[in-house]
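INFO batch 0412 | record 1 of 1 | parsing
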Amino acid sequence: MNSKMQKIKVFFKKYKPAETQLRINDKLPKIAAKMTQTQIAEATAFAQKWKATHPPLSFFPDKLGD
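INFO prediction complete | emitting C-alpha coordinates
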Protein backbone atom coordinates (compact mmCIF):
# COMPACT_ATOMS: atom_id res chain seq x y z
CA MET A 1 0.00 0.00 0.00
CA ASN A 2 1.39 3.41 -0.92
CA SER A 3 1.92 6.26 1.52
CA LYS A 4 -1.08 8.26 0.31
CA MET A 5 -3.47 5.35 0.85
CA GLN A 6 -2.01 4.76 4.32
CA LYS A 7 -2.70 8.42 5.22
CA ILE A 8 -6.27 8.12 3.93
CA LYS A 9 -6.84 4.94 5.99
CA VAL A 10 -5.49 6.62 9.12
CA PHE A 11 -7.68 9.67 8.53
CA PHE A 12 -10.85 7.61 8.15
CA LYS A 13 -10.03 5.49 11.20
CA LYS A 14 -9.43 8.64 13.25
CA TYR A 15 -12.50 10.63 12.16
CA LYS A 16 -16.09 9.42 11.85
CA PRO A 17 -17.92 10.40 8.63
CA ALA A 18 -20.07 13.08 10.31
CA GLU A 19 -17.02 14.56 12.03
CA THR A 20 -15.11 14.50 8.76
CA GLN A 21 -17.90 16.44 7.04
CA LEU A 22 -17.85 19.04 9.82
CA ARG A 23 -14.08 19.44 9.42
CA ILE A 24 -14.50 19.86 5.66
CA ASN A 25 -17.33 22.37 6.08
CA ASP A 26 -15.11 24.35 8.45
CA LYS A 27 -12.24 24.50 5.95
CA LEU A 28 -14.18 25.28 2.76
CA PRO A 29 -14.72 29.01 3.48
CA LYS A 30 -11.00 29.40 4.25
CA ILE A 31 -10.07 27.74 0.97
CA ALA A 32 -12.68 29.70 -1.01
CA ALA A 33 -11.31 32.97 0.39
CA LYS A 34 -8.03 32.23 -1.43
CA MET A 35 -9.72 31.44 -4.77
CA THR A 36 -10.98 33.62 -7.59
CA GLN A 37 -14.63 33.49 -8.66
CA THR A 38 -13.55 31.66 -11.82
CA GLN A 39 -11.72 29.01 -9.78
CA ILE A 40 -14.75 28.55 -7.53
CA ALA A 41 -17.04 28.15 -10.56
CA GLU A 42 -14.65 25.61 -12.12
CA ALA A 43 -14.39 23.68 -8.84
CA THR A 44 -18.16 23.62 -8.43
CA ALA A 45 -18.65 22.32 -11.98
CA PHE A 46 -15.91 19.70 -11.44
CA ALA A 47 -17.53 18.55 -8.17
CA GLN A 48 -20.96 18.21 -9.80
CA LYS A 49 -19.50 16.20 -12.69
CA TRP A 50 -17.52 14.03 -10.25
CA LYS A 51 -20.57 13.27 -8.10
CA ALA A 52 -22.55 12.30 -11.20
CA THR A 53 -19.87 9.91 -12.50
CA HIS A 54 -18.28 8.40 -9.35
CA PRO A 55 -19.98 6.38 -6.61
CA PRO A 56 -19.35 7.42 -3.01
CA LEU A 57 -16.54 5.66 -1.13
CA SER A 58 -19.12 3.87 0.99
CA PHE A 59 -19.78 1.66 -2.04
CA PHE A 60 -16.21 0.29 -1.69
CA PRO A 61 -15.84 -0.78 1.96
CA ASP A 62 -13.35 -3.55 1.15
CA LYS A 63 -10.88 -1.18 -0.48
CA LEU A 64 -10.48 1.05 2.60
CA GLY A 65 -11.40 -1.45 5.30
CA ASP A 66 -9.19 -3.99 7.00
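INFO post-check: Residues 37-53 form the longest helix (17 residues).
INFO record closed
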